[in-house]
Design goal:
The chain has about 190 residues and is an alpha+beta fold. Helix content is about 50%, strand content about 15%. Strands 3, 4, 5 and 6 form a 4-stranded antiparallel β-sheet that branches. Strand 1 (about 20-25) and strand 2 (about 30) form a beta hairpin. Helix 1 packs across helix 2, helix 2 (about 35-45) crosses helix 3 (about 90-110) and helix 6 packs parallel to helix 8. Mean pLDDT is about 80; it is low at about 115-140.
């Protein structure tokens, strides 16, 4: 496997952060699409003798995306991510869960990050607590909360309309910090 890992290392060194190219209007947040993730790595992998496949597989434990890197020597490396959709008989929810699993499994397999990830985003909740004491501070949901809710929705197969209905929100209404906290707990428990 030495040649495979040598080529994988070359590819990994060349793969850069993925640009966020999608927008979720409900949560007023950006995200990295599956297409952007594939475009950020496929050509580099192929140039280093590696192909990437993401077939859907199933066994007695569930349905998975099996992200597989195959080297021209025939050697391969596979990682499986379970696909979970709340509404198992809903093709839209299943499609969203598959897309979510493909994107995150590929990024995890290749150790890819979003191009604008940084430590400051992780501190957003702490900063909010300090800033909320300042008069006039907006009490909107944080970027971290919006991203977490979006990820949970995709993972659980829940659409925006369901969340809006559950928390009595209008279509383009911004979610408050407090409602976002409740939505996160609600989504975790469904």
């Amino acid at each position: 496997m030495t040649e495979f890992y040598t080529d994988l290392l070359k590819a990994q060194k060349a793969i850069e952060g993925v640009e966020k190219d999608g927008t979720n209007p409900f949560f007023h947040s950006d995200y990295t699409s599956l297409n952007a993730t594939i475009l950020a790595c496929k050509e580099t992998l192929n140039a280093n003798n590696i192909i990437v496949l993401q077939p859907i597989e199933s066994d007695e434990n569930g349905v998975y995306v099996a992200t597989t890197l195959i080297h021209t020597t025939g050697e391969r490396l596979t990682s499986k991510m379970r696909i979970t959709a709340v509404k198992s008989n809903d093709p839209q929810a299943q499609g969203s869960a598959i897309t979510y699993a493909r994107r995150y499994a590929l990024k995890a397999m290749l150790c890819m990050s979003d191009s604008d990830d940084d430590g400051e985003k992780a501190m957003e909740g702490t900063e909010r607590t300090k800033k909320s004491e300042t008069k006039g501070y907006s009490n909107n949901a944080t970027e971290k909360q919006r991203k977490f809710i979006t990820d949970l929705m995709r993972d659980k197969g829940v659409d925006i309309k369901t969340v809006q209905k559950e928390f009595d929100l209008k279509e383009n209404e911004k979610m408050s910090y407090e409602v976002a906290s409740k939505a996160i707990e609600w989504l975790k428990n469904i």
